[in-house]
Specification:
Blueprint lengths: L26 H19 L2 H7 L1 H6 L1 H29 L2 H17 L6
């Protein structure tokens, strides 16, 4: 699965925007960024050194092959997790729901009167 570029969620506006015009990032963008950070943390936690320690005898015999297996494992794990999350997003119509929440929040901030 192709990796998606995720724009920055820092909230820092560029010099061309008007003051006060900076918008908070949408929930879908935050969700995607969270997933990407989770995957980075997962790969960091499962470092090559840890992998090599688990398969110490094999690593001592064939360190290059061990590295290749680790790289394939991490790539497959990453793509599998991304595919699962994409499937969950599609099954639950998550993108539309998060966009709807963003729209409701934006509308609620413009209203001054409580509807009930």
């Amino acid at each position: 699965m192709e990796a998606e570029a995720v724009p920055s969620t820092s909230g820092v506006s560029s010099g061309s925007e008007q003051p006060g015009a900076a918008e908070t990032p949408g929930r879908l963008l935050i969700f995607n960024t969270l997933v990407d950070k989770f995957l980075e943390g997962l790969v960091d936690a499962g470092s090559y050194q840890r992998f090599a320690r688990c398969y110490k005898k094999f690593y001592k015999l064939q360190p290059e092959l061990t590295r290749g297996i680790y790289d394939q494992f991490v790539a497959q794990l990453h793509s599998s997790i991304k595919a699962e999350i994409q499937e969950i997003k599609e099954e639950g119509n998550l993108e539309a729901l998060l966009d709807s929440l963003d729209k409701m929040e934006k509308e609620a901030t413009t209203e001054t009167e409580i509807p009930w």
